[in-house]
Amino acid sequence: MKRFLSMLLLGVVVLTHACALQAGAIDDAVKRGTLKVGTNPTYIPFEMTNKRGEIIGFEIDLLREMSRALGVKLELVSSSYAELLPGLLANKFDLIASGMTLTQQRNLRLNFSDAFIVVGQTLLIPLALGGKVQGFEDLNEAGYRIAAKAGTTGEIVARKMMGAAQLSTYANEEEGVRAVLEGKADAFVHDAPYNLVAVNKLGDGKLLCLDQPFTYEPLAFGLKKGDHDSLNWINHFLHQIAEDGTYDRIHDQWFKASDWLAEID
């Protein structure tokens, strides 16, 4: 009898644990009435802060549409890029939405949704190097200095593909661009959408964007490992907005229009 009761108790514990696993981020958001999202708002035009201190951008508008579909409010939790994964694991937010590339290494620690856009790394260089540097291969020499945002695939790519050069990392994208402008670096490596805006917004006519991407990088939403129900819901949401025209409307607002530039510093 004791053995039977022990087995029965073990079964209850296992069943309770399994049920707890099924209550994922999306279910929690619906019960709470708020979708809490961790983001590092420095990545133009995906997530950034406007002159009123509000976080806006392409990815933010996708999240607003997601929140409407869930029937909940959107709460954005600003974080440094390095603290996004620890914050997710510490339950500070439900998911990560911060222009994060789905890499095999990150996928070992996170579950990722389907990609909502594909980008690639490009380079910002001084005008003086325009005739000498045609691509990343030309920078793979000891005499060159590369700038990248810490913790991003730009840093990974710089170490892997321009390993002979000297690499310096910065807390945010603007600091990396400033390093090139101030002569502290010969190139800033980052995603194409950001660099295409930064060359005009921050470049002051002194920078050249080598705008042909040389990597393949799908961006996606990050969730805790094992949260398959939330992944299922988000992937269906992405498919729905892709088919009903919502995605194209939001995309064009940020990638084809430019009036939003007046909203940011």
Automatic annotation (TrEMBL):
SUPFAM superfamilies: Periplasmic binding protein-like II (SSF53850). Pfam families: SBP_bac_3 (PF00497). Residues 1-25 form the signal peptide. CDD domains: PBP2_Dsm1740 (cd13629). SMART domains: PBPb, PBPe. Residues 34-258 form the Solute-binding protein family 3/N-terminal domain. GO terms for cellular component: membrane. The keyword Translocase does not apply. Keywords: Signal. GO terms for molecular function: ligand-gated monoatomic ion channel activity. Belongs to the bacterial solute-binding protein 3 family. PANTHER family: GLUTAMINE-BINDING PERIPLASMIC PROTEIN (PTHR35936:SF38), MEMBRANE-BOUND LYTIC MUREIN TRANSGLYCOSYLASE F (PTHR35936). This is Amino acid ABC transporter, periplasmic amino acid-binding protein. It comes from Pseudomonas batumici. The lineage of its organism: Bacteria, Pseudomonadati, Pseudomonadota, Gammaproteobacteria, Pseudomonadales.
